[in-house]
Structure formats: structure tokens, C-alpha cells
Amino acid sequence: MVLKDMLPQAWEDVEPLLEIADFGKGDLLVPQGHSAMEQFFILDGILKRMVTDPNGKEMILRFAAEANMDTSYAAWRLHTPMPYSIVAVTKVRVAKLSMLQWVGFLDRHTDVKAHFEYEVMSLMSEVMAHTITLHLLDAPGRLSRFKRKHPELLERIPKKELASYLNLTPETLSRLKQKVR
């Protein structure tokens, strides 16, 4: 959304900074705890933001697909390591740049910075809403909410990944999808 909404002058400034990169399914774009941070704009495919506890248990925080982004911006601003990983769910093509380059660009384009920071806050609210959903809704409610919020992703995300995001087994997800049809 941020790139699409840029004025031509801003686009001319950022375009030379962007690197197009391809990642395979399961590739780690940024590992949790890492301090080298980047900004990603998704051109094709699906990314997930996830955390892993010391025992290796994973929790998927969000999915993002074409025309969306993922970022290390909050950790950059707070001067902390990445609190989550960014991982390719499918084959992915992104336009990326280092956080240092991105922040420098934002400092020169305050209109883009305001729009971008709004998007970052929206992403953080989305993660918070998902966490609340896991605690307050039953399994059918969690699936219904996902279908309502992300209908475009329902059939594109592998069943195992979607089940994990909804805190379900793949078998339970299959049963629920059969009942709802």
C-alpha cells in the first residue's frame, strides 16, 4: 500500500534503493533476535511474521501478501533486536531495502513517513487483535473471523500454516471447513 500510494517524486527517490529478491517456500528473510533490519514490500507470494519460544514452539502472528509489506521498523526505532522472524510461506518476490536506507528516505518524505507509520500501527493492531481472538473465540469463531478478514488468503495459505495461525490441528481445520461450506 505504501509504495502504491507514493507521489512520483517520492517514487523516483526510492526506486533506485529497492532491491528485487526472490525467496523459496520456508526461506527465512529475517530471523528473530537479529539486529540487521530491512523493509519488505511484497510483490508476489505470502510472508508470515512468527515468534519462536526457547523450546521451539512457534506462533504465527500475521500473514501478508501482494501489495502489503513487512518491516523491522518498530524494533529499529526502539533499538531492540527483531522480536519475530519474517518467513516465506510460498515462493515470494519482494522489493527490499535496508532499514537505514528506508529511514533516510522517510526522513526526506514526511508525507510517506506519516502514511507508513499509520500502516505500521495498523499491523501492530492486527497482531493484537489476532492474539485476543486466540483467547476469546472458539475454533469455529477463529476460522469465521479469518474468512471475514482475509477471504483472499483462505485458499492460498497451506492448510498446516493456517491451522497453526488459528491454533488448530490441520484435521480440525479440515473438519471446520467442511461444516462451514
Task: Describe it.
Helices cover 44% and strands 23% of the residues. It contains 7 helices and 8 strands. It has helices at residues 8-14, 73-78, 99-108, 110-136, 139-149, 159-165, 170-180, and strands spanning 19-23, 28-30, 38-44, 47-52, 58-64, 69-71, 85-88, 92-98. A hairpin with a 5-residue loop joins β4 (47-52) and β5. α6 (159-165) packs across α7 (170-180). The two termini are 32 Å apart.
Number of helices: 7
- Find the structural class using helix and strand composition: alpha+beta
Within CATH, the superfamily of the domain at 8-110 carries the name Jelly Rolls
Mean pLDDT: 94
Percent helix: 40-55%
In a few lines, what is going on in this structure?
The protein contains seven helices and eight strands. With 181 residues, the protein is α+β, with helices and mostly antiparallel strands. The protein has a domain at 8-110: Jelly Rolls (Sandwich), CATH 2.60.120.
